[in-house]
Design brief:
- It contains 13 helices and 19 strands.
- It folds into 2 domains: about 160 residues, Aspartate Aminotransferase, domain 1 (Alpha-Beta Complex); about 240 residues, 3-Layer(aba) Sandwich (Aspartate Aminotransferase, domain 2), CATH 3.40.640.10.
- Strand 11, helix 7 and strand 12 form a beta-alpha-beta unit.
- It is an alpha/beta fold.
- The structure holds pyridoxal-5'-phosphate (PLP).
Length: about 450
């Protein structure tokens, strides 16, 4: 899909004829290539989050100038239907008028104070109202900060050090959770990246997803994505989450749900509402910031009150409870009425069905698992179906995904550039948008088949 070109530039005193962009060079449109090359000289790899560099799918990233609703437009003026939606953070679609108005109004009152504010109070209340296990809520600046704070809190509450996590779950760039998972059995973790000392993960145990591990009384907490959405989209097996709850209770460990993706996306109360289960601590991010930087943890009052200044577990943040992020989050949550979730459920199923048909008719082997409002994609004849854990997830054909991804981009649809990312359906993906995406997918699947054959 190509629409009106939107010039982008960053020089003062632009004099390009007809340029109406707020940012414009007057030197004509820069290419994605030129812009990205310039970024690479200033920023390692040209990106501020490594997946954006397209390393696993090949090709070169589009450099975004602006976005609106279900579409995103690069600096060359090409517009794509966007299935990334900031990895789910902008569930209302880009530049939603309610969010834009709330942020604009808030900015005029000052952008950060270092003191309590009414908006942070209201956002904490809004989270507690929708997620009853969160009797108290602390706001911070990212999902990563939420998971690292949740781990510190659980260790402080229990006086224990051991953490259990699941292979294929992702909890942000938190040292203790950046572990290389063992295969099939529960193992003590090894550092999953350079820069994480073995000491940081010495107390982290990695277990296979969807099997309840047997815990000991050394365990401070089990942290889990209640629906795994970073190894494709994987549903919790019947009994898995309840089993974790019971096993944690048996040994006095805390259960932490990482709902950074599922929170306010699967339902008003997230995965814990859908599966009717109360964790001790929940981590949030993404949706609750309406597209601005945010993270939060919530939990039972007696657990949360171990946080400073009430308790001994330190937490602080210069920008925590930020006026703009809380304004955007409140605006987003107030748009997310129960009806919206019913609509999103239907759209997720509809999109997945159309994508399935599109790939089938092109002879491109792929499945599109749906869990509530989340859609995943698994490629290849040989891939596990259904995927239940990380070993299964890794049976996806990454080369086939890469071919499909590049073909989709060429057909005007931007997916997240990784074979293990979710497809994010949101409020802006109307039936018409979904139909167009499905049409593009059929052409893309044919292209991918041809590329893979040649
Ligand atoms: C995105 C994500 C995080 C990290 O959040 P950031 O805001 O990127 O730090 C943590 N957990 C899950 C499940 C996520 O998807």
């Amino acid at each position: 899909m190509t629409e009106t070109m939107i010039p982008f530039c960053d020089e003062a005193g632009c004099s390009a004829a007809g340029c109406t962009a707020t940012i414009c060079t007057g030197a004509g449109l820069p290419s994605n290539t030129a812009m990205f090359a310039r970024s690479q000289a200033a920023i390692p790899g040209g990106v501020n989050s490594s997946i954006r560099a397209f390393r696993s799918v090949g090709g070169e990233p589009y450099v975004v100038a602006r976005a609106e609703g279900a579409t995103i437009t690069d600096v060359e003026g090409t517009t794509y239907y966007d299935l990334v939606q900031s990895y789910g953070a902008v569930i209302l679609g880009h530049a939603h008028p309610a969010v834009t108005a709330a942020v604009t109004a808030a900015a005029a009152d000052g952008t950060s104070y270092g003191a309590p504010t009414p908006r942070e109070m209201k956002l904490a209340e809004a989270i507690s109202e929708r997620v009853p296990s969160c009797e108290r809520v602390r706001l911070m600046n990212s999902g990563t900060e939420a998971t690292s704070t949740a781990i510190r809190l659980a260790r402080g509450v229990t006086g224990r050090d051991r953490i259990v996590t699941f292979a294929g779950n992702f909890h942000g760039a938190t040292d203790a959770l950046l572990v290389a998972g063992g295969s099939g059995i529960a193992t003590l973790g090894l550092p999953g990246t350079a820069g994480v000392p073995s000491a940081a993960v010495a107390e982290t145990m990695v277990a296979p997803y969807n099997v309840v591990p047997t815990l000991t009384d050394e365990v401070a907490a089990v942290i889990v994505e209640p629906v795994a959405a970073n190894m494709g989209v994987v549903a919790p097996a019947p009994g898995f989450l309840d089993g974790l709850r019971a096993e944690c209770d048996r040994v006095g460990a805390l259960l932490i749900f990482d709902e950074v993706i599922t929170g306010f996306r699967l339902s008003p109360g997230g995965a814990q509402e859908k599966y009717d289960l109360a964790p001790d601590i929940t981590c949030f991010g993404k949706v609750i910031g309406g597209g601005l930087p945010i993270g939060s943890i919530g939990g039972r009052a007696d657990v949360m009150e171990h946080l400073s200044p009430l308790g001994p577990v330190f937490h602080a943040g210069t920008l925590s409870g930020n006026p703009l992020a809380t304004a955007a989050g409140l605006a987003a949550l107030s748009e997310l009425t129960p009806d919206v979730y019913i609509e999103l459920l239907a759209r997720a199923r509809h999109l997945a069905a159309l994508l399935r048909d599109a790939c089938a008719s092109a002879g491109f082997a792929a499945s599109f698992p749906v869990v509530g409002t989340l859609v995943g994609m698994v490629c290849g004849e040989e891939a596990a179906n259904p995927v239940q854990n990380f070993d299964d997830a890794k049976t996806t054909d990454e080369a086939a995904f890469g071919a499909f991804f590049r073909a989709m981009l060429a057909e005007g649809v931007a997916m997240a550039p990784g074979a293990y990312e979710a497809i994010f359906v949101g409020v802006a993906h109307t039936d018409d948008v979904i139909d167009r995406i499905a049409e593009a997918a059929e052409r893309a699947a044919r292209r991918a088949v041809a590329e893979l054959a040649g």
